[in-house]
TrEMBL record:
It comes from the Bacteria. Residues 347-401 form the PucR C-terminal helix-turn-helix domain. InterPro entries: CdaR-like_regulators, CdaR_GGDEF, PucR_C-HTH_dom, PucR_C-HTH_sf. This is Helix-turn-helix domain-containing protein. PANTHER family: CARBOHYDRATE DIACID REGULATOR, DNA-BINDING TRANSCRIPTIONAL ACTIVATOR ADER. Belongs to the CdaR family. Residues 188-298 form the CdaR GGDEF-like domain.
């Protein structure tokens, strides 16, 4: 079997050239890498949390680039484990949420996709079977050793930090909140004592988070404080879900207003806020958070571009958003040609329905002339399979769904 020591000069050069192509992976196959890493029912707690999913994606790319850079420098050499910031921070977040072993397995899942891409690159650079045999034998050993060494190093680091991450007041709050959200039977008095927060009154939940390599916890905390002030409360329950994500519960049934939060969000453009519906008691505590989590997933969809939304903003789209042919069929059957019309026409129809059929109110809301509204509505009626007046609710629902899905 070929080893690093017996690797020929041409094989070393081929490995170097192939590894250079992995330093900047194409978006299409990088997404395949992420999809594989996050696939399966066991990974659902990660895929449903935009912060954890984004951290896993960053760590995946970090691993790929780490191995590629080391291979460019020393083709066939043993690559040192990746204990960079992306890997360690993502792993810490997994430990905080009790998902460390499950989360680390994501990096093994991505290995298969990366290996297939590696073979494609190598076969694209040469058709010499002997050269390919040399390169693939050595790189197979290198990749496997790197992944196992990295996971071992990260797990050792996590073991050293485990007490700090899973004990203390913050960890107790996370554990208690997890039990409440799962509906586990826990005495109310004990839960309130652990949380330092009353559960029998009103609650409005929020999720405040930042996604990106430059996310700063201080900005998340500043926005979280602004959310509490905007809701008119001086105290809140805060659970640090990850390094760049906090779960909040406010003892009020008043939703913070967007205008009151605007200055804080403008000062932290990388931070987003998802609000749940107000509720009461333990069930309201649970339901409001689940609503906020649903809102978070909608805000985190590619291309949405909003920093703030409440559950009422996304409820219909969240119910309709799903995979498979049924959703596409609904959009096509309901909108017909309007599905592919310009955004101004679509926005006019949606605003018109929301304005209860008032063209004057629609023109005012869109800052446009009433005649322009009438022309757009006439055009929409030409494109729709049925007149707008006959199925305005369905059309509005489809356009709202389209707005949240728009790339």
């Amino acid at each position: 079997m070929t080893t690093r020591e017996t690797l020929s000069g041409p094989a070393r050069e081929l490995m170097r050239r192939a590894a250079e192509q992995l330093l900047d992976p194409a978006a299409t196959w990088a997404e395949d890498l992420h999809a594989a890493a996050l696939s399966g029912e066991l990974m659902r707690p990660i895929t449903e949390d935009p912060v954890l999913a984004a951290g896993t994606r960053r760590a995946n790319l970090s691993n790929l680039r780490h191995w590629a850079a080391a291979t460019v420098a020393d083709p066939g050499g043993r690559v040192p484990p990746n204990t960079g910031a992306e890997m360690l921070e993502t792993s810490r977040d997994m430990v905080r949420r009790g998902l460390d072993a499950r989360g680390l397995d994501a990096f093994r899942r991505g290995q298969d996709v990366a290996w297939r891409r590696w073979m494609d690159v190598c076969f694209g650079l040469t058709d010499d079977p002997q050269l390919l045999r040399e390169v693939l034998e050595v790189s197979a050993v290198s990749v496997t050793a790197f992944v196992e060494d990295t996971l071992a190093a990260v797990m050792a680091q996590m073991a050293r930090e485990h007490v700090e991450l899973t004990h203390g007041a913050s960890a107790d709050r996370r554990a208690t909140v997890t039990l409440l959200l799962e509906g586990a039977p826990i005495p109310l008095a004990r839960a309130e004592a652990r949380l330092g927060y009353g559960l029998s009154g009103a609650h409005t939940a929020a999720v405040v988070w930042a996604v990106g390599a430059d996310a700063r916890p201080a900005q998340v905390e500043a926005v979280a404080e602004a959310v509490a002030r905007a809701a008119g409360v001086t105290r809140r329950l805060t659970v640090v879900a990850s390094a760049a994500s906090s779960w909040l519960w406010l003892p009020t049934d008043v939703l913070p207003r967007a205008t009151d939060l605007a200055p804080a969000l403008a000062a932290a453009p990388g931070v987003q806020v998802a609000l749940g519906r107000p509720g009461r008691g333990v069930e309201g505590f649970r339901r409001s958070h689940l609503d906020a989590a649903t809102t978070q997933r909608m805000l985190a969809r590619p291309g949405v571009g909003q920093q703030l939304a409440s559950y009422d903003d996304v409820q219909l789209a969240a119910l309709l958003t799903g995979e498979g042919a049924q959703v596409e069929e609904f959009l096509t059957d309901t909108l017909g040609g309007l599905l592919h019309a310009d955004e101004d026409t679509q926005a006019t129809v949606l605003t018109y329905v929301r304005s209860l059929g008032s063209t004057t109110a629609t023109a005012h809301a869109l800052f446009t002339h009433r005649n322009t509204v009438l022309r757009r509505l006439s055009r929409a009626d030409e494109l729709l399979p049925r007149p707008l007046a006959e199925h305005a609710v369905a059309v509005a629902a489809a356009l709202d769904l389209l707005r949240w899905r728009r790339p």
